[in-house]
Specification:
With about 400 residues, this protein is an alpha+beta fold. The chain contains twelve helices and 15 strands. The protein folds into two domains: about 190 residues, DD-peptidase/beta-lactamase superfamily (Beta-lactamase); about 120 residues, 3-Layer(aba) Sandwich (Beta-lactamase). The termini are far apart.
């Protein structure tokens, strides 16, 4: 029994030590995270977390628009099907114009299932900034964020502009991590004071020089939108985009607490087909049924690489205004992405939209992925993209060439 007493003693010391650490750092959200992960059989955030947190509902388009299903029999190869299964895919959809060429769901995920697409939400926030500027709520891309966020009205933070936040170059000290339970991201996801958290950041480099992907940039943009428009993020998204593009189902945006603020950087839940309509909107240059929903000038700005450098001193080719970019000799592939392999991607020259949801993705590479040439005419180098993206792009291209 001596070993049992020793084990209990070690366990008690660990618990006391953990609580001392939590008390010193204020990271009491750790217990919330524990209750919403390991205690329910998860290792971290999941795509079906909707009911774990309060949320706001985003009403769908009352004149919903049903996508056309092709009468032709489009098929993937056995190897491609296996790749999708191996990477825990829950849905994969390829569409040319508004016609679905391929659509498949795995496990219990169906055409009606809503799931979290994590950081693809960032790209929705980016689109809303352009609309808010066009409507006069926000002065310009180069306006100081301090006009809308009083905590930024200091000598150190006042130089940070809306453009810097959109291009992920504000130079702030946010710790971006999807796996560390004590990271800024973990506190943002499981904590209950999100806005208070993001305004505590300190500058570590001059804004507008270096691309450094941090989720706090998007949450600051969410604060700016809500201050400028006097609406919640969900309400503004519903009225300006979601209710105008033929969506067939309601969407949902997680909040930090009951009656709180949207987790604008991560937590928009919707169906695969409705996310495909976002891709179709992008393929139509921001126009839907003759209405220019996203301003034309902003579409051009959004999909132009920001003139900044990566931390490895390479010129930025990968990022515009909150959308990812893959330049090719024909055009630029545009995509939004989430940490567990969520993608909304468009290949404009082929009028293709790809949506993939799932539980995993390949890690990013600081060098050009080995399989980048699976998608033709890539302009090298292409750094900072997950290699699985190029597999999905190649699958879509192959499907479009079948008939």
């Amino acid at each position: 029994m001596k070993w049992l007493r020793r084990f209990i003693m070690v366990l008690l010391v660990a618990i006391v030590g953990l609580n001392i650490y939590l008390a010193m750092t204020g990271k009491w959200y750790f217990y919330t995270a524990l209750s919403k992960t390991y205690l329910i059989g998860q290792k971290g955030p999941g795509i079906y977390d909707l009911d774990l947190f309060p949320y706001r509902t985003i009403q769908h388009d009352v004149s919903s628009y049903t996508l056309t299903e092709s009468e032709l029999n489009y098929q993937l190869s056995a190897d491609d099907e296996q790749f999708l299964a191996d990477w825990k895919t829950t849905s994969f959809l390829v569409m040319r114009n508004d016609t679905i060429l391929f659509e498949k769901y795995w496990d219990n995920h169906t055409v009606n299932t809503v799931s979290n697409t994590f950081s693809t939400a960032k790209s929705m926030v980016g689109l809303l900034i352009g609309i808010a500027i066009d409507e006069g709520y926000i002065g310009s891309l180069d306006e100081s964020a301090s006009r809308y966020i009083p905590e930024f009205n200091t000598d150190e933070l006042k130089p940070i502009t809306i453009r810097h936040l959109l291009t992920m170059s504000p130079g702030l000290d946010w710790h971006e991590s999807g796996g560390n339970p004590f990271s800024d991201n973990a506190e943002a996801y499981y904590g209950k004071s999100l806005n208070a958290k993001v305004v505590q950041q300190k500058p570590i480099r001059k804004p507008g020089e270096y691309f450094q992907y941090i989720s706090s940039s998007t949450q600051l943009l969410t604060m700016i939108l809500e201050t400028a428009t006097s609406e919640t993020l969900s309400s503004y998204f519903e009225s300006k985009i979601w209710s105008k593009i033929g969506t067939e189902s309601d969407a949902y945006w997680s909040l930090d607490k009951e009656g709180g603020v949207e987790k604008g950087y991560c937590c928009l839940y919707a169906t695969t087909r409705d996310f495909a309509k976002i891709g179709l909107l992008i393929n139509q240059q921001g126009n839907w049924g003759g209405e220019q929903i996203i301003p034309t000038w902003y579409m051009q700005e959004t999909f132009t690489p920001a003139p900044i450098k990566t931390l490895s001193e390479n010129p930025n080719q990968r990022y515009g205004l909150h959308w990812w970019l893959v330049p090719t000799e024909e055009d630029t592939v545009k995509y939004a992405r989430g940490i567990q392999g969520q993608y909304i991607a468009v290949i404009p020259s082929k009028n293709l939209t790809i949506v993939r949801t799932g539980h995993a993705r390949t890690p990013d590479y600081d060098t050009t992925p080995d399989n980048v040439d699976e998608f033709p005419n890539i302009i090298r180098p292409q750094v900072g993209h997950p290699p699985d993206l190029f597999v999905y792009l190649r699958m879509a291209l192959k499907l479009s060439q079948t008939h």
